[in-house]
Every structure is written in C-alpha cells, then in structure tokens.
Amino acid sequence: MKDTSSPMTERPADDAVVRCTGLARTFGSGRAATVALHRVSCTVPPGARIALSGPSGSGKSTLLHLLAGLDEPTAGEISWSGLGGPPHGRPGTVGLVFQGPSLLPDLDVRENVALPLILGGTPEQTALRAAGDVLRRLQAADLAAKLPEELSGGQAQRAAVARVLAGRPALILADEPTGQLDHQTGDRVITVLLNAADELGAALVISTHDPAVLDRFTERWTMRDGTLIAAPGPGKGAPS
C-alpha cells in the first residue's frame, strides 16, 4: 500500500507541541467501516498559527479530536511530549473549542467557564474568580451572569473560548468556531483566539471553510479524503 503520509512542518522532536506519526482512524468494522484518516503525520511547533481547510467529511474534525486527546487512533502514534504530558493520554494543557453549542444550559456563563477548572481540582471560588478575569480580558464581563439560552451565537462562542482559555492551554484547537456565525461576528471570534494565543504563548490550530479566516493565518494545511496535504501560506516556504 502506498504511504500517503505527509511530513508537515517537521522539526526536531524536542521542538514540537504535538507530534503525530502515521495516524489512521477507522469508524465501524467490516462493510460498514469508514476510514476517516489515512496515515497522517504532522508536527505542531510552539507558537504555530495553523489553519486547516478541506471539504466536509475530509477528516478535519477527526484529526483535531485526536490532537486534543479526545479520541484514539486506530493505528499510528501521537505524542504531547512538548507539553510535558504523557506519551499516551490527553494532557491538561490542550483546549478545544467546538463548532456547535457546548455550554451547559443550567449554568451561567461564569459557571460554565469555571467548570473545567473545578473538575480539575481548583477550589470553586478560585475557579470562579479566574473565570471572571478571563471574561473581562475578552471584554465579555457583561455575559457572566447570563444563561446560555440568553446568548447570541457569537456571545455563546466567545463564552466557549473563554472556558478554554481559563485553563491557560499551551495548545488551542478550534473546530470550525465561526461556522455558525455571520462574517463580522466570526471575525471577532478569530481575533479573540489569535490574541489569546499570543497572550498565552500557545500554539493555535483551527479548522475552517471560510476563505476570510484562512487569509488570517500564515500556515495552511489542507485535508482531502482523510489525507493531510501541505500548502504553504503567504511568506512561507514549502514544507520539508
């Protein structure tokens, strides 16, 4: 079988936030099996700003879920050694922003933002203060006491971003975070993500269909039929 893996932004192993080698992911078995990823290899370096594009069903979400440690590959290896995490299992320094609604309906925004910290062992009052601080930095303090049902799509996504940032991740992953937003609101969400990544010194990988979002990233990857393809952005040379 032909090896379709692509060396993406390859760097020395000690200079990688996350490194994947020959990842494959198949859902189901037998005739019902669906191959979502085909032997994908990639490296996310510190401080990366990567936009991942491709049609629906090309494997973007599957790859992001593997990078986040929310799913396990059928074959291949993934390591977060650059984050100080274990070679297997999700490290706590990865944050994922989902495309759709992800806030718990019975909690207000501040409680939603604080929840991952509380579940991670942070005392409740400390977590709530941290959540309030993040919301203020994102100019969303006015949302703190609102329930998710009271939020617009853009406000809900900003709250979801705040929840991720409260954990101060070293790697931020965002799966089509503007897919359900109008252009202006989506642009603000991308600005929030970029600014937050700068503030935290975090790597940022975002999947998107939006050409306007792609234009804001200097490094672009493309997925097609479960295969990762290199595509240098403006000012970038071809990947080695």
Automatic annotation (TrEMBL):
Keywords: ATP-binding, Nucleotide-binding. GO terms for molecular function: ATP binding; ATP hydrolysis activity; transmembrane transporter activity. GO terms for cellular component: plasma membrane. It comes from the Bacteria. Residues 18-240 form the ABC transporter domain. This is Putative ABC transport system ATP-binding protein. It comes from Actinocorallia herbida.
